[in-house]
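does this look right to u?? iron/sulfur cluster version
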Amino acid sequence: MGMKIEKDKDRLTSEVKAVATWAGARLVGIVPISVTDVSPKVFVGWNVQEYSMRATEVMSDAKSIVVMGYHVCDDILELAVRHGGHWVYPSYFPLAVLEETVGNYLERRGYKAIANPPLPQKQLAQLGGLGCYGKNSLIINPKYGPWIRLATVLTSADLIPDNPFTVDLCSECTDCIKACPVQALTPYRVDNRRCLVGIHLTDSQSFEKNDQWLQVEPKLSKNAHQMCTRCQKACRYGREEH
Ligand code: B12
Ligand code: SF4
Ligand code: SF4
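got this back:
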Protein backbone atom coordinates (compact mmCIF):
# COMPACT_ATOMS: atom_id res chain seq x y z
CA MET A 1 0.00 0.00 0.00
CA GLY A 2 2.72 2.51 1.07
CA MET A 3 4.77 1.52 -1.98
CA LYS A 4 1.81 2.17 -4.28
CA ILE A 5 1.30 5.66 -2.86
CA GLU A 6 5.00 6.41 -3.35
CA LYS A 7 4.83 5.13 -6.93
CA ASP A 8 1.74 7.21 -7.71
CA LYS A 9 3.41 10.27 -6.17
CA ASP A 10 6.47 9.61 -8.27
CA ARG A 11 4.42 9.32 -11.44
CA LEU A 12 2.32 12.43 -10.77
CA THR A 13 5.48 14.43 -10.04
CA SER A 14 7.10 13.35 -13.33
CA GLU A 15 3.90 14.13 -15.22
CA VAL A 16 3.61 17.60 -13.71
CA LYS A 17 7.24 18.33 -14.62
CA ALA A 18 6.71 17.04 -18.17
CA VAL A 19 3.61 19.23 -18.59
CA ALA A 20 5.50 22.29 -17.31
CA THR A 21 8.40 21.59 -19.67
CA TRP A 22 6.03 21.07 -22.59
CA ALA A 23 4.35 24.40 -21.79
CA GLY A 24 7.72 26.17 -22.01
CA ALA A 25 9.43 26.00 -18.61
CA ARG A 26 13.21 25.49 -18.72
CA LEU A 27 13.44 24.82 -14.99
CA VAL A 28 10.93 23.13 -12.68
CA GLY A 29 11.17 22.43 -8.97
CA ILE A 30 8.84 21.20 -6.24
CA VAL A 31 8.76 22.78 -2.78
CA PRO A 32 6.87 21.06 0.04
CA ILE A 33 4.66 23.27 2.23
CA SER A 34 6.31 21.77 5.31
CA VAL A 35 9.44 23.70 4.25
CA THR A 36 7.91 27.01 3.10
CA ASP A 37 5.66 27.39 6.07
CA VAL A 38 8.51 27.30 8.55
CA SER A 39 10.68 29.76 6.56
CA PRO A 40 10.66 33.35 7.81
CA LYS A 41 8.02 35.64 6.32
CA VAL A 42 9.42 38.14 3.87
CA PHE A 43 8.56 41.87 3.86
CA VAL A 44 7.40 42.91 0.41
CA GLY A 45 8.11 46.62 0.55
CA TRP A 46 7.26 47.84 -2.92
CA ASN A 47 3.61 48.94 -3.34
CA VAL A 48 2.48 46.04 -1.14
CA GLN A 49 3.98 47.06 2.22
CA GLU A 50 3.26 43.87 4.11
CA TYR A 51 4.72 40.54 5.10
CA SER A 52 4.29 37.67 2.68
CA MET A 53 1.58 35.11 3.37
CA ARG A 54 2.09 31.50 4.31
CA ALA A 55 1.01 28.95 1.71
CA THR A 56 -1.57 27.47 4.08
CA GLU A 57 -3.11 30.94 4.52
CA VAL A 58 -3.72 30.91 0.76
CA MET A 59 -4.93 27.25 0.60
CA SER A 60 -5.56 25.52 3.91
CA ASP A 61 -4.86 21.98 2.60
CA ALA A 62 -1.91 22.97 0.38
CA LYS A 63 0.83 20.34 0.10
CA SER A 64 3.26 21.52 -2.58
CA ILE A 65 4.34 24.42 -4.77
CA VAL A 66 5.45 23.93 -8.35
CA VAL A 67 8.01 26.62 -9.21
CA MET A 68 8.98 27.14 -12.83
CA GLY A 69 11.65 29.19 -14.57
CA TYR A 70 10.90 30.79 -17.94
CA HIS A 71 13.98 31.80 -19.91
CA VAL A 72 14.29 35.44 -20.99
CA CYS A 73 16.20 34.85 -24.20
CA ASP A 74 16.45 38.46 -25.40
CA ASP A 75 16.37 42.04 -24.08
CA ILE A 76 13.22 42.77 -26.05
CA LEU A 77 11.35 40.66 -23.50
CA GLU A 78 12.17 43.26 -20.81
CA LEU A 79 9.26 45.46 -21.80
CA ALA A 80 6.89 47.53 -19.68
CA VAL A 81 3.77 48.80 -21.45
CA ARG A 82 1.34 51.31 -20.01
CA HIS A 83 -2.23 50.21 -20.59
CA GLY A 84 -4.79 52.62 -19.21
CA GLY A 85 -3.86 53.09 -15.57
CA HIS A 86 -1.83 49.85 -15.41
CA TRP A 87 1.51 48.51 -16.47
CA VAL A 88 1.69 45.21 -18.30
CA TYR A 89 4.78 43.15 -19.04
CA PRO A 90 4.53 41.11 -22.27
CA SER A 91 7.23 38.70 -21.07
CA TYR A 92 5.00 37.79 -18.13
CA PHE A 93 2.30 36.40 -20.46
CA PRO A 94 4.16 33.08 -20.90
CA LEU A 95 4.27 32.81 -17.09
CA ALA A 96 0.47 32.83 -16.98
CA VAL A 97 0.43 30.15 -19.69
CA LEU A 98 2.76 27.95 -17.63
CA GLU A 99 0.65 28.45 -14.52
CA GLU A 100 -2.65 27.80 -16.29
CA THR A 101 -1.38 24.68 -18.04
CA VAL A 102 0.06 23.11 -14.91
CA GLY A 103 -2.89 24.26 -12.79
CA ASN A 104 -5.46 22.81 -15.21
CA TYR A 105 -3.57 19.54 -15.36
CA LEU A 106 -3.59 19.18 -11.57
CA GLU A 107 -7.29 20.06 -11.40
CA ARG A 108 -8.13 17.44 -14.02
CA ARG A 109 -6.32 14.95 -11.80
CA GLY A 110 -8.60 15.93 -8.91
CA TYR A 111 -6.34 18.29 -6.98
CA LYS A 112 -6.75 21.94 -6.10
CA ALA A 113 -4.48 24.42 -7.83
CA ILE A 114 -3.97 28.18 -7.48
CA ALA A 115 -1.97 29.92 -10.19
CA ASN A 116 0.44 32.66 -9.17
CA PRO A 117 -0.38 32.66 -5.45
CA PRO A 118 0.80 35.74 -3.49
CA LEU A 119 4.00 34.11 -2.19
CA PRO A 120 7.66 35.19 -2.28
CA GLN A 121 8.77 33.66 -5.55
CA LYS A 122 12.53 34.12 -5.15
CA GLN A 123 12.51 32.24 -1.87
CA LEU A 124 10.47 29.45 -3.53
CA ALA A 125 12.90 29.25 -6.45
CA GLN A 126 15.85 28.78 -4.09
CA LEU A 127 13.97 26.17 -2.07
CA GLY A 128 12.92 24.36 -5.28
CA GLY A 129 16.52 24.12 -6.47
CA LEU A 130 16.31 26.59 -9.40
CA GLY A 131 19.20 28.76 -8.23
CA CYS A 132 20.66 30.85 -5.42
CA TYR A 133 20.16 34.49 -4.42
CA GLY A 134 22.68 36.56 -6.34
CA LYS A 135 24.08 39.81 -5.00
CA ASN A 136 21.79 41.53 -7.54
CA SER A 137 18.96 40.19 -5.32
CA LEU A 138 17.71 38.01 -8.18
CA ILE A 139 17.77 34.24 -8.32
CA ILE A 140 20.69 33.16 -10.48
CA ASN A 141 21.02 29.77 -12.12
CA PRO A 142 24.36 28.26 -13.27
CA LYS A 143 23.16 27.98 -16.89
CA TYR A 144 20.70 30.87 -17.32
CA GLY A 145 22.13 33.31 -14.77
CA PRO A 146 19.49 35.88 -13.70
CA TRP A 147 17.62 35.55 -17.05
CA ILE A 148 14.76 33.52 -15.64
CA ARG A 149 11.28 34.66 -14.68
CA LEU A 150 9.34 32.74 -12.10
CA ALA A 151 5.91 31.15 -12.33
CA THR A 152 4.29 29.26 -9.45
CA VAL A 153 1.33 26.98 -8.77
CA LEU A 154 0.14 26.13 -5.27
CA THR A 155 -1.54 22.72 -5.05
CA SER A 156 -3.12 20.20 -2.71
CA ALA A 157 -1.19 17.43 -4.53
CA ASP A 158 1.54 15.79 -2.48
CA LEU A 159 4.50 15.86 -4.90
CA ILE A 160 8.10 14.68 -4.45
CA PRO A 161 10.22 17.66 -3.33
CA ASP A 162 13.46 18.81 -4.92
CA ASN A 163 16.49 19.77 -2.89
CA PRO A 164 17.10 23.47 -2.22
CA PHE A 165 19.91 25.15 -4.17
CA THR A 166 22.75 25.58 -1.69
CA VAL A 167 25.83 26.54 -3.76
CA ASP A 168 26.91 30.21 -3.54
CA LEU A 169 27.51 31.18 -7.17
CA CYS A 170 28.62 34.78 -6.47
CA SER A 171 31.57 34.14 -4.20
CA GLU A 172 33.80 37.28 -4.26
CA CYS A 173 32.17 38.83 -7.34
CA THR A 174 30.41 42.22 -6.97
CA ASP A 175 30.00 43.13 -10.66
CA CYS A 176 26.23 43.73 -10.49
CA ILE A 177 26.58 46.06 -7.51
CA LYS A 178 29.12 48.16 -9.44
CA ALA A 179 26.96 48.12 -12.57
CA CYS A 180 23.82 49.61 -11.02
CA PRO A 181 23.57 53.21 -12.28
CA VAL A 182 21.73 54.43 -9.15
CA GLN A 183 23.47 52.40 -6.39
CA ALA A 184 20.29 50.51 -5.57
CA LEU A 185 22.15 47.30 -4.65
CA THR A 186 23.89 46.11 -1.51
CA PRO A 187 24.77 42.40 -1.46
CA TYR A 188 21.58 40.29 -1.92
CA ARG A 189 19.25 43.25 -1.48
CA VAL A 190 17.71 45.84 -3.76
CA ASP A 191 16.56 49.20 -2.42
CA ASN A 192 13.13 49.39 -4.01
CA ARG A 193 12.98 53.19 -3.57
CA ARG A 194 16.06 53.56 -5.75
CA CYS A 195 15.76 50.85 -8.42
CA LEU A 196 14.85 52.50 -11.74
CA VAL A 197 12.42 49.74 -12.63
CA GLY A 198 10.19 50.77 -9.73
CA ILE A 199 10.68 54.54 -10.16
CA HIS A 200 9.67 54.41 -13.83
CA LEU A 201 6.48 52.55 -12.97
CA THR A 202 5.41 54.70 -10.05
CA ASP A 203 6.51 58.15 -11.26
CA SER A 204 6.96 58.07 -15.02
CA GLN A 205 6.54 61.84 -15.32
CA SER A 206 9.65 62.69 -13.31
CA PHE A 207 11.42 59.69 -14.81
CA GLU A 208 10.97 61.01 -18.30
CA LYS A 209 12.50 64.36 -17.35
CA ASN A 210 15.78 62.67 -16.41
CA ASP A 211 17.98 62.18 -19.49
CA GLN A 212 20.42 59.87 -17.73
CA TRP A 213 17.65 57.54 -16.58
CA LEU A 214 16.06 57.60 -20.02
CA GLN A 215 19.28 56.21 -21.45
CA VAL A 216 19.07 53.27 -19.08
CA GLU A 217 15.35 52.67 -19.69
CA PRO A 218 14.78 53.82 -23.27
CA LYS A 219 11.31 54.71 -24.47
CA LEU A 220 10.29 52.49 -27.36
CA SER A 221 6.90 53.93 -28.18
CA LYS A 222 4.32 56.28 -26.63
CA ASN A 223 3.44 53.76 -23.92
CA ALA A 224 6.35 51.33 -23.84
CA HIS A 225 9.86 51.31 -22.46
CA GLN A 226 12.56 48.78 -21.87
CA MET A 227 13.30 48.02 -18.22
CA CYS A 228 16.81 48.36 -16.82
CA THR A 229 18.91 45.24 -17.31
CA ARG A 230 22.29 46.47 -15.99
CA CYS A 231 22.44 44.20 -12.94
CA GLN A 232 21.57 41.20 -15.11
CA LYS A 233 23.93 42.08 -17.98
CA ALA A 234 26.80 42.40 -15.50
CA CYS A 235 26.39 38.82 -14.34
CA ARG A 236 28.86 36.28 -15.65
CA TYR A 237 26.27 33.51 -15.55
CA GLY A 238 23.82 32.97 -18.39
CA ARG A 239 25.45 35.21 -21.02
CA GLU A 240 25.76 32.45 -23.61
CA GLU A 241 22.05 31.66 -23.35
CA HIS A 242 20.79 35.27 -23.42
C1 B12 B 1 8.14 43.93 -5.72
C2 B12 B 1 9.02 43.38 -6.79
C3 B12 B 1 9.97 44.22 -7.37
C4 B12 B 1 10.32 45.59 -6.77
C5 B12 B 1 11.12 45.38 -5.47
C6 B12 B 1 12.14 44.25 -5.60
C7 B12 B 1 12.52 43.45 -4.36
N1 B12 B 1 12.37 43.92 -3.14
O1 B12 B 1 12.95 42.34 -4.51
C8 B12 B 1 11.10 46.28 -7.93
C9 B12 B 1 10.17 47.17 -8.72
C10 B12 B 1 12.31 47.13 -7.50
C11 B12 B 1 11.50 45.07 -8.77
C12 B12 B 1 12.48 45.13 -9.73
C13 B12 B 1 12.86 44.06 -10.52
N2 B12 B 1 12.28 42.84 -10.56
CO1 B12 B 1 10.87 42.29 -9.34
N3 B12 B 1 9.52 41.60 -8.25
C14 B12 B 1 8.86 42.04 -7.23
C15 B12 B 1 7.89 40.97 -6.64
C16 B12 B 1 6.48 41.30 -7.09
C17 B12 B 1 7.98 40.84 -5.11
C18 B12 B 1 9.44 40.73 -4.61
C19 B12 B 1 9.65 41.22 -3.18
O2 B12 B 1 9.42 42.37 -2.86
N4 B12 B 1 10.04 40.36 -2.29
C20 B12 B 1 10.39 40.76 -0.94
C21 B12 B 1 11.87 40.59 -0.82
C22 B12 B 1 12.42 41.27 0.37
O3 B12 B 1 12.04 39.16 -0.81
P1 B12 B 1 13.39 38.40 -0.95
O4 B12 B 1 14.32 39.21 -1.80
O5 B12 B 1 13.12 37.01 -1.31
O6 B12 B 1 13.85 38.46 0.58
C23 B12 B 1 14.92 37.70 0.94
C24 B12 B 1 16.21 38.46 0.78
O7 B12 B 1 16.05 39.77 1.28
C25 B12 B 1 17.03 37.58 1.63
N5 B12 B 1 18.14 38.27 2.23
C26 B12 B 1 18.13 39.35 3.00
N6 B12 B 1 19.37 39.62 3.39
C27 B12 B 1 20.15 38.68 2.88
C28 B12 B 1 21.51 38.48 3.01
C29 B12 B 1 22.08 37.36 2.40
C30 B12 B 1 23.51 37.15 2.60
C31 B12 B 1 21.28 36.46 1.63
C32 B12 B 1 21.88 35.31 0.93
C33 B12 B 1 19.91 36.71 1.50
C34 B12 B 1 19.39 37.81 2.14
O8 B12 B 1 16.22 37.05 2.69
C35 B12 B 1 14.87 37.32 2.41
C36 B12 B 1 14.08 36.10 2.71
O9 B12 B 1 14.41 34.99 1.91
C37 B12 B 1 8.45 39.66 -7.29
C38 B12 B 1 7.39 38.58 -7.59
C39 B12 B 1 7.03 37.78 -6.36
N7 B12 B 1 5.77 37.54 -6.14
O10 B12 B 1 7.88 37.35 -5.60
C40 B12 B 1 9.16 40.18 -8.57
C41 B12 B 1 10.49 39.51 -9.01
C42 B12 B 1 11.35 39.32 -7.79
N8 B12 B 1 11.10 40.51 -9.89
C43 B12 B 1 11.74 40.00 -10.85
C44 B12 B 1 12.49 40.75 -11.80
C45 B12 B 1 13.00 40.00 -13.00
C46 B12 B 1 12.74 42.13 -11.61
C47 B12 B 1 13.56 43.06 -12.52
C48 B12 B 1 14.75 42.48 -13.26
C49 B12 B 1 12.63 43.79 -13.51
C50 B12 B 1 12.03 42.90 -14.55
N9 B12 B 1 12.63 42.78 -15.71
O11 B12 B 1 11.00 42.31 -14.28
C51 B12 B 1 14.00 44.15 -11.50
C52 B12 B 1 15.35 43.77 -10.83
C53 B12 B 1 15.73 44.57 -9.64
C54 B12 B 1 16.65 43.76 -8.73
N10 B12 B 1 17.94 43.85 -8.94
O12 B12 B 1 16.15 43.04 -7.87
C55 B12 B 1 11.63 38.47 -10.86
C56 B12 B 1 12.93 37.82 -10.39
C57 B12 B 1 13.37 36.62 -11.20
C58 B12 B 1 14.69 36.10 -10.68
N11 B12 B 1 15.53 35.59 -11.55
O13 B12 B 1 14.97 36.16 -9.50
C59 B12 B 1 10.37 38.23 -9.91
C60 B12 B 1 10.43 36.94 -9.12
C61 B12 B 1 9.14 38.27 -10.83
C62 B12 B 1 8.94 37.01 -11.66
N12 B12 B 1 7.74 36.51 -11.72
O14 B12 B 1 9.83 36.47 -12.28
N13 B12 B 1 10.78 43.96 -8.46
S1 SF4 C 1 17.37 46.97 -12.40
FE1 SF4 C 1 18.81 48.66 -12.84
S2 SF4 C 1 18.35 50.23 -11.31
FE2 SF4 C 1 17.38 48.32 -10.59
S3 SF4 C 1 18.92 47.39 -9.23
FE3 SF4 C 1 19.26 46.53 -11.29
S4 SF4 C 1 20.82 47.88 -12.21
FE4 SF4 C 1 19.97 48.96 -10.44
S1 SF4 D 1 27.26 39.76 -11.12
FE1 SF4 D 1 28.53 38.57 -9.70
S2 SF4 D 1 27.81 39.17 -7.65
FE2 SF4 D 1 26.23 39.80 -9.13
S3 SF4 D 1 24.79 38.10 -9.19
FE3 SF4 D 1 26.26 37.74 -10.87
S4 SF4 D 1 27.86 36.43 -9.93
FE4 SF4 D 1 26.66 37.33 -8.24
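The chain has a mean pLDDT of 95. idk if thats expected tbh
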